[in-house]
Amino acid sequence: MGNRMRTFLAGATIALAVQMAQAQAQDTAAQRAYAAVDPFIGTGGEGHTFPGATLPFGMVQLSPDTRIQARKDAYGWAAGYRHSDDTIVGFSHTHFSGTGHSDLGDVLLMPVSGDAKLERGDPDVPGSGYTSRYSHATETAAPGYYAVTLADAGVRAELTASARVGVHRYAFPQGKPAHVIVDLRTSMYDYPGKVQWSRIRVRADGTVTGMRETRGWAPGRQLYFALRFSQPLAGHALQDTEQNVPYKGFPPPGEKDSAQRAQIEGRQLVARFDFGDRLSAPLVAKLAISPVSEDGAIANLDAEVPGFDFDRVRAAAQAQWAQALGVAEVDAPAPMRKAFFTALYHAFMGPSLFMDSDGRYRGPDNAVHQAKGWTHYSTFSLWDTYRALHPLLTIVQPEQRNADIVNSLLASRRESPYGVLPVWAFHGLETWCMIGYHAVPVIADAYMKGIRGFDADEALDAMVASASYGPYDGIAQYMQLGYVPIDEEGEAASKTLEYAFDDWTIFRMAQALGRKDLAATFGKRAANWKHAFDPATGFMRARKRDGSFRTPFDPDASGYGTDYTEGNAWQYSWYVPQDVAGLAAAHGGADKLLARLDAVFDAKVDPKVFAHMEDITGLIGWYAHGNEPSHHVAYLYAYAGQPWRTQARLKQIMDTQYKPTIDGLAGNDDLGQMSAWYVFTALGFYPVAPGSNQYILGRPFVRKATLNLPNGKRFSVVADGLSDANAYVGGVTLDGKPLHRAFITHQELMAGGELRFAMQAQPDKDWPGAGAQAPYSMSAQ
Amino acid sequence: MGNRMRTFLAGATIALAVQMAQAQAQDTAAQRAYAAVDPFIGTGGEGHTFPGATLPFGMVQLSPDTRIQARKDAYGWAAGYRHSDDTIVGFSHTHFSGTGHSDLGDVLLMPVSGDAKLERGDPDVPGSGYTSRYSHATETAAPGYYAVTLADAGVRAELTASARVGVHRYAFPQGKPAHVIVDLRTSMYDYPGKVQWSRIRVRADGTVTGMRETRGWAPGRQLYFALRFSQPLAGHALQDTEQNVPYKGFPPPGEKDSAQRAQIEGRQLVARFDFGDRLSAPLVAKLAISPVSEDGAIANLDAEVPGFDFDRVRAAAQAQWAQALGVAEVDAPAPMRKAFFTALYHAFMGPSLFMDSDGRYRGPDNAVHQAKGWTHYSTFSLWDTYRALHPLLTIVQPEQRNADIVNSLLASRRESPYGVLPVWAFHGLETWCMIGYHAVPVIADAYMKGIRGFDADEALDAMVASASYGPYDGIAQYMQLGYVPIDEEGEAASKTLEYAFDDWTIFRMAQALGRKDLAATFGKRAANWKHAFDPATGFMRARKRDGSFRTPFDPDASGYGTDYTEGNAWQYSWYVPQDVAGLAAAHGGADKLLARLDAVFDAKVDPKVFAHMEDITGLIGWYAHGNEPSHHVAYLYAYAGQPWRTQARLKQIMDTQYKPTIDGLAGNDDLGQMSAWYVFTALGFYPVAPGSNQYILGRPFVRKATLNLPNGKRFSVVADGLSDANAYVGGVTLDGKPLHRAFITHQELMAGGELRFAMQAQPDKDWPGAGAQAPYSMSAQ
């Protein structure tokens, strides 16, 4: 397709989006869903979310960065923004939503008026740099839109975004020179040598392009950009501020006069672009990113935002968000609607589009590849998101998106130098963060739920390859011994447990594909959790190669070097979602297991015990809702025949761990996993064991919710008599028929219909009743 | 074209080359030309050549590196090899031939037996690293082939090359473990932070790929490679030895056991590949490079060297060289034939192919581009090579190659962030080394000589753009004042003079294209040399903006900050090749100019005056044959009506500045310029003013030479009566008719025929005679 045609089509797409936005203005549900979102939720406290502008699953996340910290202090600023800060450094184009590690923050722009400093300065010394004070009173945020007044510069700054383009609108004060700083040095935190190389080029037509290559969370990451302004440049300056080992080559033209420089390369680059003091209208800056090249960024810019119509881009963003959020209609009090739709909003932050408009992207081999027939995504926080985020997307996003996600995982495996599926990947690159091979349950769950559009045989091969890659985290020993030996590999108990679950999903998919050999192998491996169970203590523990459990053993202990990953024995000992019945049997029966679960929730725990662990937050006893290993635990009561206990624990969690406020998330949102838990739980069901096609029933927290399923059907949840006092389920009907089991199936959900809960003040300890069908448990099949 | 087809064709090409090699075994001339070459000429002394294996204009130059120096000592090791060293560090795949600056040295391989150290060690302490001693007695080199015995490892190592692939054959001693070290750290010299990023990946099929990104002579240079061994790997180790700021990410699989690592990334990488102690045949390693990607390198490997037949690749290299060198047949004593064909060999070292087998390459914007319809070259040492190297290629290489060179220059200009033609470019990137815009005379000379196959209008546009780019080296001031002012730009006299010459070639081409406007503008600019001429001292000098010459003035002074580039007033004051008659007139007549030239050659000069200038070597008085500003000077006598004085000076130069020995080059070969001077001068003529289509006659130094011109014609030079005593020309005939002028034209040369010199002991001061047509001089037209 020629450029002109592509530009035309992009224009047509935007026009269509605007039409849709107008249409949806009459669509009360979608509009009300959009209006309910508060992007500031989680920007304080532990949430690590950002308030800036992005599309659902967009490649650009354009958001203010409030402070740049030293690496050791970077945890709290992983999203760039902390609501408690009173300064803004600038607006950068890529952010993680809710992570515990910090990276991205690519291409920081900052409007400045008057004297323009090229250093960000000390945030505590106003005027010492281009950093500006701001007041929350001037801030506005909605999905796809953010605005703030920069007090020091006197600039009203607005942000919006298309998929690959961040669009800024800056209203400068009259009569003072207007500038835009472009800083390639800042990158969420300061780290010596983080920028491996970077480039800024001012082209003859005023387009500014460049790249930065960084070694942050993932090393060798290249990101390209193209930037255009709505007004011609009156001047510019390009500077390399490196003091450490500056590059000494022959001077390029313009060395003596930065305003004459057409390009600069180095490791500490900053630029100033000048627009004089007579701007007759707000300045619009549009910046496209590309994983491939500067030309790729220019093509993305041309394809998505051909002009400088900020409002048009904003309207298109609003339309896309309204359409996406309109998948749910919720009848609930305003605070809960805000929490619900903001959770849904945060659930659509990842995986992120990672592909140029021509289908090219960069893979885990750091090479450029071409997506043929699918849309490529990256940013896979899989240890978190396989639990509830991907199962949620399977329900509320189009099948094509879910197939694209699987195709992206499969492409990454084809391109992997290790021949394995992503573990924790972003911008195409592998970070090896966290444990497990949890792309496996994502794919298995999608396949079991009928998602097609990818090569199932290749997928199974890829899953088996990931589960069999010996050098990774003790898999060789796991395959030999049936468990990961702690004397050879750290956090061995957690790894054994999670591998066994992932293996069970391979077993499921192999069964579905008629691959009996693989089903036998991985069915056996799925029982490996038993090797971690210590009957003497009732905890999951790590064994040594000689078969003995490691001693001394402290079930309270957590941290690197222990048996567990971001947790302790109290938190990790219930991770057998594929076989809760087996777990209960191991404990000596369901009652024994129930007592243990109560011991978890009801323990008196001094939170200081986790002072050394950033991620373990949101404590209820030992239960830590702020981190993922706990997320399924409250639902285990239902397996053990006491759904009323699940209902009670869920109320306890919902009441204490989520608020529709700045600090409303008890833990890192982790690319939507915390939010997906909320969405499911508010609706009254949860995917404890992805791959099982079952959702365990909890209780609804909304009066009514209807899901407008992508297949055109509608599935409603109704909570009759719901009130704060009526917190227990007295009975459940599905499509009017009493439901005598504590779960529903994916097939039932996707068929549309109505799930109706009768809420009451007292627990109904008899529901679903003796002889009710139990949820899937492997050993009970 | 599919891979299979491409591989097939590559195989067919090699088969054809082998056939040609066999055919040429009967072609005495080509075979004797090939046999006459001694690649060791220039590897000692000032030549900076390398003895390794490459094809004519090949992308790979595979050669031993003898020592790695600190950057401050790197000058003498710019080609990696110094004959005076007695150790070899390894064999790397890219080298400059004859430069004064140092870079490349990409992907160093070293065979080791027994205990394999990963550090190169101290060359003065045998066994302290993988560096090995060697003896010149074991060395063999021929075009496309090099062999040596590594004494410490006991390995016989042979090297050969195709265009993009280096092929190694290592015969290991029996009974000891055989290893190959791959070192990405070494790069001709040590410089902190030079390697920006690098990667080594061991693929499942045993292919090793990787990349390195360096900031050396040009920053941000990326080079990719793919390596295969003829024997399966028995093991491997991948190490990052960085001590300064090592990358701290999450450990990839195999962190604990290097043998399990599939990939390593970092800034100081080295690998060891193991082959056990039972190799039944010599190990063949083939390594392809690519400017684009690892996949590009694999494709290059597959396309050019599908198997592991070292001898087949060697035979094909020999065939290509014999064909290229067979352009000349020379009747001369063996030492002169050796010097002549080695000079021709060195003249075919650059520009170098810089394009993958699929036509992709990297441009000065560091982006990947696709050559459509031409072969892309880089490594343009233009300040040197516009003088004689490119004019030589215009005669002895196919028109397509010369058109490809022009197309490569034009592509680089299209891709240039500055919109200008290359200045000193390699691997696609601009270094801004030296002065002038000498791609301009290369293109003009090619066009004036009838080279077609490029867009002449675009070429003229590009030439004008380069000559009008204000920020570069004082061009803005030059366009304003008619000279470069020394108070605003260093080395201003040299710049004014060279710009004026380059401008004259634009004038010539604009005239030829009927662009009268441009011809007028640049014809005027061509006379700007007059602004540098100081009648009071008779020297070219630098003026200040106020029009006065800078004082104090010392015609002996050279160095950075002076009026001149790598020279002094004695050396630079004759640089008006476009208007020697005008220069003579400025001096007050030809006799005055002649006296000044004698003063140059006959001065008593203490060489210590240039001790601070690495490049000014090969002194005869002030005449410095080791550097390019002097190269045309001896021929100026002929312009002034005294060709016999040119003949005498040429003998003086040929007798003292060239020897067919290790230290046989008086200065850096500079990508073939020193050698091209030799080839022309040995044949009896020289292109003093590229763009004039005239070759000034000197005198032949060979009894007879025949050029097998690419158009199928044959042009012979005969020196009747030639002897050491008969050093003067008594008369000249062209095709049997007496020639009454001291030049021939390109048209005459390309028409074929015979140029016959009658050599005699006494100068013929009357030839070419009163009223003889003078060579081109602009002011005389």
In words, what does this structure look like?
2 copies of one chain form a homodimer. The first copy, chain A, is of the alpha+beta class and 781 residues long. Among the domains of chain A are: 3-324, Beta-galactosidase, Chain A, domain 5 (Distorted Sandwich); 380-469, Up-down Bundle (Glutathione S-transferase Yfyf (Class Pi), Chain A, domain 2), CATH 1.20.1050.60. Helix content of chain A is 29%, strand content 22%. Chain A has 20 helices and 40 strands. In chain A, strands 8-9-10-11-20-16-15-14-18 form a 9-stranded antiparallel beta sheet. Chain A has a 6-stranded mixed beta sheet with strand order 21-35-36-40-37-38. The longest helix of chain A has 23 residues, at 3-25. The first copy, chain A, is globular and about 80 Å long. The termini of chain A are far apart. In chain A, 62% of the residues are buried. Chains A and B meet through strand 14 and strand 18 of A and strand 14 and strand 18 of B. Chains A, B: Residues 1-25 form the signal peptide. Chains A, B: Keywords: Hydrolase, Signal. Chains A, B: One of its GO terms (biological process) is glycoprotein catabolic process. Chains A, B: InterPro entries: 6-hairpin_glycosidase_sf (IPR008928), GH-type_carb-bd (IPR014718), GH92_a_mannosidase_put (IPR005887), GH92_N (IPR041371), Glyco_hydro_92 (IPR012939), PNGase (IPR050883). Chains A, B: This is Glycoside hydrolase family 92 protein.
